[in-house]
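Model it.
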Amino acid sequence: MRAKARDAGASGWLENLPRLVGDLCRDWGLRPGAAFGDATEAYVVSVTREDGTPAVLKILMPRRGAAFAAELTVLRLAAGEGCCRLYAYDVDRAALLLEHLGPSMSELNLPQPRRLEILTDLATALWRRTDADLPTALTRLAWQAAYIPRKWAELGKPCSRAAVDQALAAAASRGRAWDPRRAVLIHGDVHQWNALSVLAGSGATIGEPRAAHAAGTDPPNEPSLLGRRAACVDGDIPAGADSRNAGADRRDAGTDRRPAGLGGAAGLGGAAGLGGAAGLGGAAGFRLVDPDGLIAEPEADLGVLMREDPVELLDGDPWERARWLATRTGTDATAIWEWGLVERVATGLVLTVAGVQPIAAHMLAAADEVGRRS
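Modeled.
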């Protein structure tokens, strides 16, 4: 975090950090504990509230201003549903007081199929229509379409040209398919390191977040670089949703803000989803952290799950995961597949730059193999 702050020209913020932490602890009645050493974009420290509730104080560095606004918006809208709970926030000081959670899913050695089930259910718990001022899928696609070829060349072409072309074609396809009537709030980075376990009794003293101080239709099937199309699964192509609802940060009681087509037997309201007796299940034991915060078609969230666990993806037919995700959520398998093509290459390159190996190499190798099989 210190190196990134200096690189971002935030040395003054870094020098002032002890006083900033002290001021926030005084203003919010917090007793500071140990800092988290693995944070890279923020200063994160364990704290205890006046009533004894454990919490986490997160202060984002100045260059992350837009990210702070997006994260705050998502956490307020989620109100603890799928994401960590927000206790307090300070816009001027880019500070968040958050629920204290336990180990990440990545530390718990859950079988990959079970991880996929839980992460899918966590993602869908957040989906809702909103008029919040957040970046859209088009913003992400534009960035990915520019980043992929540039970084691929700069890194010495760490994956095949075919994988890059396939990712760019998929990005163009999802851009053409953009339909604001289907757009919902999504997390944008759902994976096992961003899913933390819920500690026993963590929800007992949670109240309303408070401000503190400052407080459509896809293009027709066409021969392309995207690979063979998914077999049609009954109910996996949602109908167009109503226009996005304006209004409150939180769901109104009894009001379903999910897009039409996501509430069927295989969707969010059935036993395989989040509303039935077999709904939340294991997902209730986890919450997502560090949301990117996008307004996008729901399949964009599921495309992230297509990029994750790349070794397991190749054990069988990669399309099977896309079809499984579509059936579980009542969404479109082809859209999920295309988002996966983009996310796999873009994130593989990002992780290569960051030196996160062997995960980066595995993602890019999976992109190559998917391209060969298509």
